[in-house]
Amino acid sequence: RDLRMSRGLGDVYKRQALQYQAYYNSMILDRKDYNNIICNKYIPLVVRHPLSSHVDFAYEGILETYPDGLDKRRFTGVSEDIVKYIREAVNDGWYVVTSANEYYLEGKMMSGIRYFRHDIMISDYDDAARTFKTIGYDATGHYRESEVSYNSMNKAYYSLQNEWEFETSLFKINDRTYDIDIDRIRYDLSQYLDAVNPVTGYLDEFIAGKADGKWLNNGIEPYSGIRCLDYLEKVLSGTSGINEERSITVVKEHIDVIECALNKLKQHGVSDYDAGLMSEIKQLIRMLKMQHIKYIEFEEDGLTDRMADSVRRLKDKEYTLLKGVCG
Questions:
Q1: What phi-psi label fits residue 195: left (phi over 0), alpha (psi between -120 and 50 degrees) or beta?
Q2: C-beta separation of 137 from 143 below 8 A
Q3: Is 172 strand, coil or helix?
């Protein structure tokens, strides 16, 4: 019980938009050396989402991999008592990630609307209130903590429609030390500048082995490295614009990680970076976010063009910044 109550998950909001690895991020941020893990494992890879106009950065591997700072167990099949199973796992110090039907989950995007299978992460429970503490995306697209009742969890779990959907993973922070790998960070930054995708194998395997017609018909377009900003600019320059806040937020969080990596290089005496240029980049992101808010709320004419221009300028400044570090 003390282990569960000591968890400090507030830092998760620093990088709330990393969809594919958001749960792993939440757990890793509980480690004192989380910056080492984030800097070592982060690969600036962006994949165009096949069903809507948003982009996601990911860690090394976007499917079944996870940072070395975690131990993992995985179970398939229907649990006889999912509430009891989750409580016992949390008591043993595990975070629980399980499949659920969002129709029955309060505050989720598809709550009360339609059947939608999605993962839910549980970090704690309250028997007095008969609720689980969960972490994930809410109906507004924000990544935050919320509560789900035991009754709702039962309905969301046992209403899953396919046998393969019943899947539960357990994660626990391990005691292994994780030292910073300076050479790896510098190499990854240079790969980012060259728009190299070092993890194409994962995406290729996914398309070949798991993708259905819905994915293929929408056309997955990988945009690697700094070219991810090309995709964002391309969508903003089109007719539809971008309606999801996450597409803008993810760029800010990407810059947060890049700044973290650059600070590690500086601390280890490898190379310094232009702090003034980094400040200009952050200012551009703030302006981009404000432009996006105006676009969503007021639909002002010309805003998508101005957002596209902001992204273009951001990309040029980021290239100059990293070129000065990596040569």
A1: left
A2: yes
A3: strand
